[in-house]
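User: Modeling request: complex.
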Amino acid sequence: MKTYMLPEFIIERSDERCIRCRVCERQCAQEGHWYDEELDVMFHNEETCIGCQRCVVFCPTRALSVRPHPSTYRPNANWTREKLQDLKKQAETGGVILTGSGNDKPYRIYWDHLVLNASQVTNPSIDPLREPMELRTFLGRKPDGLDLKVSEDYEDVEIRSELYPNVMIETPIVFSAMSYGAISYNAFKSLAMAAKEFGTLFNTGEGGLPKSMREEFGQNTIVQVASGRFGVDPEYLNVSAVMEIKIGQGAKPGIGGHLPGEKVSINISETRMIPEGTDALSPAPQHDIYSIEDLSMLIYALKEATNYEKPVSVKIAAVHNVAAIASGIVRAGADIVAIDGLRGGTGAAPKIIRDNVGIPIELALAAVDRRLREEGIRHKASILVAGGFRNSGDVIKAIALGADAVYIGTPALVAMGCTLCQKCYTGKCAWGICTQDPYLTRRLNPEIASRRLVNLLRGWSHEIKEMLGGMGINAIESLRGNRDHLRGVGLEEWELNVLGVKGAGE
Amino acid sequence: MVSSLKFSLRDMFLEGVRPLEKILGYIEVKGEEAVIDASELKHKEVNDLLRYTALNKVKKVEVINVVGQRYIGTRLHIPNPSPRLEIHIKGTPGNDLGAFLDGHRIIVHGNAQDGVGNTMDDGEIVVHGRAGDVVAMSMRGGRIYIRDNVGYRTAIHMKEYVGKIPVLVIGGTAQDFFGEYMAGGRVILLGLSLKEGEKHKAHYIGTGMHGGVIYLRGRVEKYQLGKEVGIVDMEEEDWKFIEEQVRRYCTYFNRDMDKIMEGNFLKLVPVSKRPYGKIYAY
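Assistant: Request completed. Predicted assembly structure:
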């Protein structure tokens, strides 16, 4: 069928600068560039261009530029170009439109309407370069109170209260769930290496943990147990730092996942323990969890399987009744509640779901933190939030709204090279991240990519320390849930109420 | 103390759990054998004692007076020295019997509840009775034999990888969503609890199935099968496999093998390894 769709991008090549080195041809994963020897000319095909910018970055003479295609339909606020293109695509295929990465629609980003406080005159600010500043965070259930016994000479202190398993991380930032299968082995390993080096955690997603990585990286791993139960064996659970039951994902609340058969290579089939080339289908619900009681059963099954030595996290998508659900999760025995918001990323999701289902993480977080406090069970679980954190400012605001730590997925991918072209689901990532093609995955060197990730964590952590110091706070713990350090700008009354913050100037 | 009377949180699993040294009176160890009296023990306490036996060179444990304690056998992943226990259960074990089981053998002298062999890795579970819902969910390896019927959603998302193929043999019949999302493994449903000529009860058999094989003895109508499942001819290898498994079933439960093998066997396999490959627009 002749396609009626307009090309998405235009490729412009400066013939003066082009030296016919054919780097663009080799770098493009869409076969968008080719060379004609007889004519000594480079050609390109705009129909296939996805705007990933790989050729532009690697062109040694800066001869290329790729930008949105200038041809447009008649401008129409209702029928936008994207809507028309999607209609044409569906008319031509009859399929569900897939997409990758997070929601790109202009929902209000509350981080941009919250501002932080700083000390002026009445209390001194702290300089983190010269004074100790604590970002260390403990994830897991905290005791109801501390019963201490101090020896008569005041030398020894004995904690008599029962303590629960907690995991220590050096910064309140951990890497989101991205499975080996969704991303390449090299990308997966880069995350693991960076987490280990920095003293934080990465999340396996629902793809198992390759045997070769278990000993070295196990203690920096959050292992996921999701509806497909891929790669879940007793050793997998026991080498981990944290176990996470995945109920939902912010990019696709309420639905499961399909890793297409062509991505299930020999290595992936071994890690997931399924036959090569079959679809890896994750059902929408976990079929042994139809209620909070069932959830409780799986939480304790995991604790049993690991001798009660590790915290269990339950990850849900932020949806309308998130506060009540989170309360149920804590009551079911979870040590960590992970919430993934409307802007959370994905390797593949139906676009209609990614763009329309769920609520923003800011509102969900504030509602959950408040509800757990009101019920006197906030200390029973840590709160991990995910979904659209773009910089350290977003992270510190989340902590002031009540989060214990933040999951970052997209920023980590971008640090490794991702340009948010949203074509993750095609498996042809020119940056070697979201692909299993050996020619493409070789582009990502874990030594270099993990360095980029560690740099990102270091930069953000330092910025967080600077902001904390500015507020006159020397431990992230003191900011947790401390909404007095936040003010809203340009928000409606109901939004301020849900967030639990005052308006600026109040 | 942070607590609110109105909302105070009750831990249904761990409340009142006693430390190991206080419950050693419930166990009697004689060399390589042990007996645990579970009548006054909580879920965790039963498993504390089972772990204790495994770490103390016991090979065979009898757990008597079991009254619904969950997760029996789950906490026995002990990498070095990897003991292998044989656990005999008298009474009724609770949900998630042998969940994540790591190579041990469990024999239930009675009925079992929901979640038998949930995400089981290796070993064997034999139930001299019936079992509840979600039997063998996401099972990855090992074998389960159930003498009588099973409930709903049996063998959901069973898996296999190269030589590691889980086997589930059910003497009776199953309820709806039998073999849903199945991705591997071998399931035999013998239908011995059905009357002469009566068809199996389950609907949506093998919905979303994309791997593995279901052998079904007796009658089933086409409308009871999911649309991702097809019936194919039995081959010699299939007969060999069924004979081997039925022989084991008959040995365990003392049944007449020839009579079972006289029945009509159907082989159900997925139509495609990629049932949902075509619903997306790329």
